[in-house]
Amino acid sequence: MDVTAHFVLVPLMAQGHTIPMVDMAHLLASRGVHVTFITTPANASRIESDIQRARGSGIPIQFVSLRFPCEEFGLPQGCENLDCVTSREHAVAFLHACRTLRGPLTSILRQQNPPPSCVISDTMQYWTADMARELGIPRLTFSGSGGLFHLFRHLFLQNKSNDKVNNGAESVVLPGFPHHIEIARALIPGSLFIPEMAKFREEMMEEDCRSDGVVVNTFSDLEAPCIDQYQEVIGKKVWTIGPMFLCNRDAAYIAARGNKASIDQAQCLRWLDSMQPSSVIYVSFGSLARTSPSQVIEIGLGLEASNCPFLWVIKAGNRSAEVETWLSQGFEERTSSRGLIIRGWAPQVMILSHPAIGGFMTHCGWNSLLEGIAFGVPMITWPHFAEQFLNEKLIVEVLRTGVAIGVKTMTPWQVDKDVVLVKKDDMVRAVSRLMGEGEEGEAMRNRSRELGHKARAAVEEGGSSCENVTLLIQQIKASMKLAQ
């Protein structure tokens, strides 16, 4: 008799981590697996459309909302997501608050039928390891990053590479890496050596080493050398099951994925339909990156001077009086025939999949990169923080499907001064290289299209990611039978 597998998904409450785990929930549930997705009240409101759609379709996903203890840890009421955090101290408090979810969640899971058979949790939710051991089930880790970062983090900490570097400008090159990756110390993901995070980092890495495997939102043809080496050095299975969002082709899900769009989607599509194929540069920097008013204005000046059609996302936090005044003083009127501005949240997957999009200026968050790759869109890379500078290396130096804007310093989550890292002329040069008719741009477009075909093939019947999902479910079912 076949047993019913029950996966419990515990994301980190940050949009870049939560959105792919929602995709994972749909992917697993589409195979008949029972899924429990853990969230909190404020975060549940962000994915309300996903919750309602799952209930309406009858797919076996249960969303469990746990109270988040903001006030007990000195956090503002409603600060249940990392994009609400405004300081390093609050970031540490936020992660400590997450650990208190263990008791309530364990009680809920003990009462569920079918009982849980596997936990897949964000690597930063390392407290789930004790819970999984208490319940007698395996725990797999997930971080929302690609294989390059997984391998880099492991080798970097294992080799104590940071101890061998004297200053922030000095470069780090890891021995034995499948690609030659050279990166300045100052651009290495900050959580690897921020002093306040030392204890947290040690416990997280300890539980990573004790986990039963790793799930990565990537695909074999994209990162096979990194994944193969990572699997070898950690001595456990690495499941590549991406791009996960491609497994759900429902148009309504794709359009509303992650948040409610800040623009009427029909209006957005009508504008895109009016543009020539592969003519538009899409500019968006994710959910956490913040841009100073002067930098926003410089971006606009660059887009205008490039003479390239553009679709530009300006997040709500960047809509200062200064920016809005500048936009209204002629910019929008001058560019109205070839530019569209979205203020807030954009239906990014819907946009990137449109034939009019010819390039993507991105902050290099892994979800955004994977979405651009899946639709064969070449990129202009503008990393801000976290592992984004490593991801830029993958796009520009390894895959050669993008152009670096030239940023050499990290941008903090919350910009506390009016900084300008990229000038108008930098924008014009990058757009010209990517969107131009020369050999360089054409070669990048061809390589991007080829990668897009491979990404879509990976999730089709017989593709590497599709097969890995099957094997993952089979392994969990086999462990359930052994435990009976």
TrEMBL record:
Residues of the Glycosyltransferase N-terminal domain: 7-133
GO molecular function, one term: UDP-glucosyltransferase activity
Matches recorded under PROSITE patterns: UDPGT (PS00375)
EC number in record: 2.4.1.-
SUPFAM superfamilies reported for this sequence: UDP-Glycosyltransferase/glycogen phosphorylase
Top enzyme category: transferase
Keywords: Glycosyltransferase, Transferase
InterPro entries: Glyco_transf_N, UDP_glucos_trans, UDP_glycos_trans_CS
Pfam families in UniProt: Glyco_transf_N, UDPGT
Family listed: Belongs to the UDP-glycosyltransferase family.
PANTHER family reported in the protein's UniProt record: GLYCOSYLTRANSFERASE
Protein name: Glycosyltransferase
Lineage of the organism: Eukaryota, Viridiplantae, Streptophyta, Embryophyta, Tracheophyta
